[in-house]
Amino acid sequence: MKTLVPESVRSKAEASLARFLIRNAVPILFTVLCLVGSYYARLPLKFLLNDIIVRMARNSFLVISLIIPVLAGLGLNFGIVLGAMAGQIAVITVTYWEIGGIAGFLLSMLLALPYAILFGWLTGILFNRAKGKEMIAGLILGFFANGLYQLVFLFLVGTIIPFRNEYMLLSTGIGLRNTVNLKGIHYALDNLLKVGVMGLNIPVATFASIVLLCLAIRFLFKTKLGQEFRSVGQNRYVAEVSGINVDRVRIIAVIFSTVLAAWGQLIFLQNIGTLNTYGSHVQVGTFAVAALLIGGATVSRATVGQALLGTFLFHLLFIISPLAGKNMMGSAQVGEYFRVFVAYGVIGVALALHAWQNITKKS
Amino acid sequence: MDEQYLLEIKNVSKEFFGNRVLKDVNLAVAPGKIHSLVGENGAGKSTLMNILFGMPVIHNTGGFSGEIWFDGKKVDIRSPEDAMNLGIGMVHQEFMLIPGFTITENIKLNREQTKHNLVSRVFGAKMKSLDFKLMRADARAALDVLGLTIDEMLPVAGLPVGYMQLIEIAREIDKRNVRLLVFDEPTAVLTEVEAQTLINAMRMLAEKGVSILFITHRLEEVLEVSEEITVLRDGEVVASLRAADATVERLAELMVGRKVEKVSLGRETQGITGSGRQVILELENLHVRMPGETVRGISMEVYKGEILGIGGLAGQGKLGIANGIMGLYPAEGRVVKEGKVVQMNNPASALANGLGFLSEDRRGVGLLLDQSIEFNIAITAVHCQDKFVKALCGVKLIDTKAITEHARRMIREVDIRCTGPQQLVRRLSGGNQQKVCIARALTLEPDVLFVSEPTRGIDVGAKRIVLELLVRLNRELGMTIVVTSSELAELRAICDRIAIVYRGRLEGILSPDASDREFGLMMTGEKPGRREVS
What we know:
B: six-stranded mixed sheet, 19 helices, 24 strands
């Protein structure tokens, strides 16, 4: 704008630099932390890179699954825990049928789809009843769904649900074991096409699927539906008046997110190779949310780039913090403690900032 | 039957929780005609329009009784989408624009041009890509109709208010099937030039066969543009007349239901024009970066006990002055209040120095709409002056009892029409919201009160009350008041001196008794020579 007072041209440049710093304060802070941590961890670079490649491949999909609800104004979808459950239901079924390899993996993706759509639809209905409080609703919904999940897999499996597999069931014959070996689909996607470059193992197929997802999201936001997501996200009332069916658009956004989370959890599990039946899904929501926020996203703004950057920084911190803590303080626990403290602190601060902005700029 | 009418509203009544807001309203609009609907705030105009648009707020509160006929058929409008499909469009009082979107995206909101791609052929129309080239062309065409040269790819956020309104109208123009267009007080926030552009656009649309329902407070405009006029008072139609038979006085009388006289309050100068006057506030080379209202170096003095008016055309910077002094927009320069320097860009410092501010943007920065009246009145005083705070074991607690008591007194004093101090501010009419703002400013007990556009968007009756209140504050409490207003007549009615701002600079200071010619010349920057009131 040409409406500037002349003397302030320099201060404008300073202001825009300051704005850049403030806007990206979180990723910058974490980059610094990671650099310092990496220095003190004294890990061989190759080991560090290999580890980060594994973790990026494993987690990026889950983090990216959060983007659509953020842009549709639903905030951070802690409800992706339900998506993770849908993925796990599919993976348990596929393992029970003893279908392995990439066929088993693709089948599990297909199987997860109806569950995820159903869960996403129900979550969406709940979110529509709790407009403006989607995040807390999603968080609690995750706990509630966990209860149902335990009911199904601890008591109904082997009794009502016919399930005969002594490797998967507890010794009583009722309920799934705490850990289920997923050797059938272990590395099904990762090893589909693995390329070694200078000692680094790159799971090309997994990264290709992540890239595909990124492109799909970019494409989505150039479509009519994407524009509806954005309209609803920016101002629900205006969207409503313009004839957009706000509730429906919000449900669609949640379904997208839940389905992507289900697939993301499948990618995660095929890499890990074992299913922690009652634990794998529990922290999916909080970890993915923390990663996204660390990448510089906010409750109302998120990009694919932020998701990837955040995943990178969050998991780099995961890798280095125990060693850095040990080398700096003489105890790996300190590093662990610091990492957990910072990760959850980021979520807390981001939510508080959002609430504060809402109050000050309300309507 | 009544083929000659496009829209007929028959015997429509509506109750909100036992509170009757519309009673047997009848209204008919002919094709290609401009029909005006006038009435005070709270007369039921907005409710009638909500019914016409099938807004959820109507159906969630038990619907309404009566019938709506459109194009000779009885219609049942259950949602805004239904209304839109019938060809009813609306230009809203509150901006129905998405600030983060570009002008094009806003104009084409939910009517985007799309083109097929691989995915959409499988998954359906929702997955079609947006065709920005076509969208831009359409937006451009609609803007051209209104004579707007602005770049259609600019984001809406940060545009001047007048532009936003015109963009909203461009959106309605862009709807090809539109047959009835409702203008809900579109000129309330516009300057006269912008309003004229708007009225021309309305005429043009009517010529093209679009019926227009025009809701406004500006009676001159009603007479100028419309053919039929319906007057609504307290939810009832009190008159339905042809524009040719109406006069401003008669309309105002019908609307308010009592005789309206021109606002002109006795002015008693309190030694502020003599040599004994004291300077209470001094501005030195004030620059303010407020989008659309930039101030480029203003120096002037405000005298103790006076009412100083700041006038000028929209966009010349008059609004920037108060906003800059109060630290709401980035400012440079020096402001001295009774010998003490007020820190720039620091609202707390301005408030601590006894400066109070009534913003022109009541809904944006002025009020917390989802909070109660009493909370709104007290909040600033609680924060800045530790008023209504009691200490309990060293912990500061808000004294809700004192707040309620204070709010009750304020409601009485400034005459806020409400159900009680706990009522949410969102539910109040524009005039009453303004009074809440005044009450809050008074709670701070400022020495100097800045008031911007105090009567914007409120009806004739409330306008007078607000102006009278300002004068009373000045006379009875000795408060120095700086009023910024686009309505010159209003400034001339209550001010002791009027400063005219042109291109961000002080053009001159006139006495309220100066001639129209002098004011006109100064406002357009063609002053014959600077003239001070001594």
